Amino acid sequence: MSLSSKLYWSVYALWISTLVGVARRINREVTEPYMDEIFHVPQAQAYCSGDWRYWNGAITTPPGLYLLPAVLSNIQRHLPRYFSRFNFCSLDSLRFFNLSILAFLPLLYTSLLLAIRQPVVSEKKQRSRTTIGEERKENGNSARWEGLTIALMPVLGWWGWLYYTDLGSLATVLLSMRLSLDKRWFWSSIVGAISLLFRQTNIVWVAFIAGVGIARELRTGNSSKKTKSQLYDPLLPDARPIDLVLTPYSLAYLSLHNLSALVPILTAYLSVFLGFLAFIKLNRGIVLGDKSNHVATIHIPQIYYFVAFSSVFLSPHLLDSAKIKKTWSSLFGSKTRVATSLNALVVMCWTIRNFTIAHPFLLADNRHFAFYLWRRVLNVHPLARYLLTPLYLVASRLICQAL
Hints:
globular; 0% strand; 403 residues; mainly alpha
C-alpha cells in the first residue's frame, strides 16, 4: 500500500471515529426524538412491532426509511434468544442506520468519480497500456480524496446523526447512477425505484439518470449506423440560448433513429415511470399524508438560494482571479453585456417579488437553519432580498464557467 493510500485510510478512519464520537454525544444528550423524528421514529417502531397498518398522517414521504429496521426486527423474532439482545428499533439504533450510510458515502462518491472519468473507447485505442495504467492510479488517488471531501459537506453531516430520509434518498440515487454508468440498466432502475420509497420527488433524478444513459449511448457510437449525425451537446460556457432547443432536438432525433440500441435503457426505466404515474393517480397527488401544507407551487427564488448555497461551498474553485475577470467581462465587458445583465437583474427582482414563498413551517420553527437565514438575511429589510440579486447573477455566471 502506497504512502498516499495509507494516509487516506487513516484520515477516513479518523473521520468515521469522529462521526461515532459525535453520535454518542448526541444520543446521550438528545434522548427523545428531535424535530421531525417525532414522526419517523414512532412510525418505524410501529412497523418493528408488526403493526403494518399504522400510518402517521403528518408524514409526507413513502415508508422506505422504516422498512430495513422493521424487516431486521421481525426476522430477529424468529432467531434464538441470544440474538434478541440488540434492539434494531431503539432511537440510537435507528439513527445508526443513517450514520452507517454517511460513513459509506465516500466510497460511493469515489466509485462515481472514477466511472465518470473513464476515457471513451476511441481515446483508449490511442494510448499505451502503461499510460492508461498510470492515469488510472493518479485518478484513483485523486478521486478518493475528492470523494471524502464531498462527504465532509457540513449540511450533509447533520442528517447522519438523526433519523431522517435524506441520506437513504441520496445513497440510493447515487447508487442508481453508478449502476447506470456500468450499463446495468435493470439494477439501476430497481435501485431508482427504491429511491422513490425514500422521496417520491426522486423521480426527477431517475429521469435524469435515464437521460444521461441515453446521451452516453448516443455519444459513444454504440447506436445504430442509420444516421451519421453526432449528438449536439456543447459545453455550458460555450452554450447559447438557442442550444436550449437544439440540444433536446438533437437528443430526440438521434434517439428516434437509434431506438433498437436504446431498447435496454427504455424498457428498464419505463416500468419505474409507469409505476410512479399509477401511484400519483391512486394517491391523487404526489404527497402522502399532510397534503394541505405541501402544495406544489412555483418558487423561482429557490433557484437563487441554490446558487448562493453552491457558490459558498464551491468558492475554492470559483474565486480565481482569471475566472473573476472572465465573469466580469462576460457580464459588464461591453454596453450590450451591461444592458443584458441589467435586464437579467430586473427579471430576477420581478420573480423575487411575485414568486417568493415563506412556508409557515419555516417561520414557526427556530430549530432550522433556514429560519435564521430568512429572518436575519432575506427578510431583515423589505429591500434585502432584492439587494442580493447582483450576487446571485455573478455567482451563477461563475458556476457556469466552472461547469
